[in-house]
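ok trying this again, last paste got cut off
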Amino acid sequence: MFAAVACLAAAPRPAAAQDQRVVVMKFTGPRAAAVRKAVIKLIGRKADLIPQSRFVKAQRRLRAKRITARNVAKVAQKLGAHGVLFGKVSRRRGRYRVELTLRRGSDGRVAERATVVLGRRPSLSKAGARRIRRTIVAAIAELPEPVAFDVESSDRSGRDSDRDTRDEADADDAAVDDAIEDDNPLAEDDGVGADDEGVDADEGGDGDEHGDGDGPAGHLTKEELWNVLGRERAIDVSAGLSFQARSLSFDTAAGVVDRPNGYSGSIVPGAYVVVEVYPLALDHAKRKADALAGLGAYAVYDRVLTISSKLQNSDVDIPTAQSRWGVGVRYRYNLGDKPTGPTIKAGIGFNKLSFTLDQQVIADNMLDIDLPNVSYTWIDPGVAVRLPLGRELAAVADARLLLVTDTGDMQQMDNYGAASVTGFDVDAGAEYRLGARLVVRGGVRWSQISYSFDGTGAKTDRDGDGTADVSGATDRYLGGYATAGYLF
C-alpha cells in the first residue's frame, strides 16, 4: 500500500492550465509565420509562452539540434517547458492547412496531433480555432510537469540499458530530415512541422515570441522562394539597355511638291530602368488577403544615351534628345495554383515621351528643318501576360492603348493644328531566371502614334491654295531591350 502511494506521488502530474509553459517553434511552409502568429494568440490565452530563441540556444548548448523525442525532452526540461508545439503549413488546390504536433516536455513524445483546414487565406476561422482548442489547447492543459533531466547520466546510459525505451520514444521521428535551419525543410510526410534546429533566420535577435522577422518572402524554403518569386514577387527591379529607332512620316496628297520633312533614325542605345512593386506582398506571411496582394505600382524610365540628327544634304549635326518615363498602377492575377501557371496583369499608367532637336543650333545655322518637336503625354490602359515555359524560362507580352492628351509642338496652329490622335504600344519578350532572385530579360517593342489632322494648321496647306495637303502622320518607335533584374 505504501509502495503504491509512493509511486503515485512521484509520478509527474498535470499543472494547472494557467501554469503550463509552452514553446511554439517556427512553423514551416507557405505563409507559415502568419498561421503561427494566429496559433500563438490562441494558445497564449491558456498557457505561458517561452520564446523560441531560448529553446534554440538550449538546443545548441545541449547539442540537441535534431528533433527527436529524447532531444526535445532534454531541451524542454532544461527550460521547464511542459510542451513544445510544431507546425507545418501546406497549400493544396488553393486551400491552406496546418498540421500541428504537440510534444510533451517530460519525455519528448507526441501528446497530440491536429490538422486544421484554413481555407483560401492563411488565417484561422472560428471552426479552426474551435478545433485547436478541443485538441491542442486541451492537450496542453493535461501535460505533465517536466522532470529534471540529467544530461550526462542519460548520455552515458543512452546506448545500453535505455536503448529499447529510446527506440520506442523516437518512433514518431523516423521521417524527420537531418537538415539545418531553413535550407532543407522536413519531408512532406514526416508529420512534424519543424525543421531540425527550429532556428529562425534572425535567431540572434531579441527573442520576441510574437515577432515574425519576415522580409519580402521570409521563412520560405529554397523551392518555395523560387515559386513565390516567380508569380508572387513583391518587388521587381530591372536595369539595362534599350535599342530603338524613330521614324516619322506624313500622309501628303499626291502631286504636292513641298512635302514636309519626316524623320528616319537609326537604332540608338538607351538606359532603361523598370521597377514594379506590390506593397501588400512585401511580407508574404502577413498579407491579409491574396486579392489585395495583387495590387501594385510600377515606374519606367528610358533615355537615349547619345543621338544626333542631320538634314539631308546638310553637314550640320543637330543635338537631339529622346526620353520616356511613366508611372502607373496594375493588378496581378495568377491563374491556377501551380508555379508554372500563367499570370495576367491589368493596369493603367501616366506617361511622357519627348523627342526634341536643339532649336538653338538650328537657328544659328539657319536651317529650315520643317519638323516640330514632340512631347507626348498619354494615359495607357493595358494588359500583360506572363507564361512560364519551364522552371526558368517564361514568355512575356504587354499591350497598351495610348490615350494621347498632348503632343507638344505638333498640334500648334503654326504647325499642323488640331488632330485626332491615337496610339498603341506592344511589347513581347522572354525572361530567364538565373536563380531564385536573379532574372535576365530581352524583348522587342513597338510604339506608334497616329495623327488625323483636321486641316486647320498652317503647315497642312503646302501649296497655299487654301486646301489641306497633309491629312495625317505616323510616329513610330521600334526597338528592343536587354536587362538584368533582381526579385524580392
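PB: full thing came through this time. The chain is about 20% helix and 40% strand.
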